[in-house]
User: Fold these one by one.
Assistant:
Number 1:
Amino acid sequence: QKEVEQNSGPLSVPEGAIASLNCTYSDRGSQSFFWYRQYSGKSPELIMFIYSNGDKEDGRFTAQLNKASQYVSLLIRDSQPSDSATYLCAVSRTLNDMRFGAGTRLTVKP
Amino acid sequence: DVKVTQSSRYLVKRTGEKVFLECVQDMDHENMFWYRQDPGLGLRLIYFSYDVKMKEKGDIPEGYSVSREKKERFSLILESASTNQTSMYLCASSPQVSGREQYFGPGTRLTVT
């Protein structure tokens, strides 16, 4: 079992819709959770982080964390074609053990 | 804004060459990391450093070494490049507090022929 699992996609949504990206993790001691966006040929860019159970909103992005279910998700409201990218989920327990999922490729169609 | 820079965007080397990849960050971060990213495998940690002259092995350190002589600079060294080290190499930095977010440089796409 992979430590951080994501559906590789591609996930395709129409412009203006809500895109829902999901991630599960295996280490119950994980404390910090991150979402990165990576455009093709570029490096990952941090878009959200969440440390506590519940929802955290930032503009069109909402991160949701459920530690009991070992589940973290990212919702993108009013999806735009510029949101088309690969989204990486990352989970960390301590300083040096950030684990990344392989990413979900999102395509937003005009 | 955090700025992490890497010495080269693209690099082509021959098998057996010694390769140096350099990373510089300007945010006074204590922690610096080297990853490689391969399709389907995601990001894998090669080495990280939590202070000058301090280093720790990550998941895949074999064939690599690192150097951190100054706080802002972290170098990755391929002692004798091999074709299976063809990959995208990403440097990242983060503040000292455990579990904080990491900021990535633009990456170096290394091809070993």
Number 2:
Amino acid sequence: QKEVEQNSGPLSVPEGAIASLNCTYSDRGSQSFFWYRQYSGKSPELIMSIYSNGDKEDGRFTAQLNKASQYVSLLIRDSQPSDSATYLCAVNIRDNQGGKLIFGQGTELSVKP
Amino acid sequence: NAGVTQTPKFQVLKTGQSMTLQCAQDMNHNSMYWYRQDPGMGLRLIYYSASEGTTDKGEVPNGYNVSRLNKREFSLRLESAAPSQTSVYFCASSEWGTDTQYFGPGTRLTVL
């Protein structure tokens, strides 16, 4: 079983709609969760981090975490064509070297005008 | 601040050739990472260095070696390149204990 799983998509939504991206993880000890956005041919850029159960909002983005269900999601409200990208979920794995991130395979989002 | 820089941006190798990918960060971070990204595979960790003087294997270390030259620089070496190593390589850094990683622009490597 993969440690971090995402639907690869593509997920297509119309402009102005809510895009919902989902991620599940296997390590119950994980404490830090991240969403990165990656435009085609570019490097990943951090858009959200979340550490506690519940919702965290930043502008049009809301991250949701449920540790009991080992589930983290990203909602994008009022989706814009410029949001079209691949979204990577990352989860920390603690080890004796401090820790590292495990990434999901990414969900490709397409926002249609 | 330049953040995380990588050289070269593009490289084409023949099977069996060697090369070193360079990475440097100016954020005074302790931890540095090398990933490869293949279509549909997300980012896979090759090696990481939690702090200067230490390195550890990640998920896919075979065929690679690393050197943490100093706090700023972390290089990745392919001793004998194979077509299976055709990929985009990203370097990242983070402050120890924070988990938030910042990525360089990537190196696109093709092995013929």
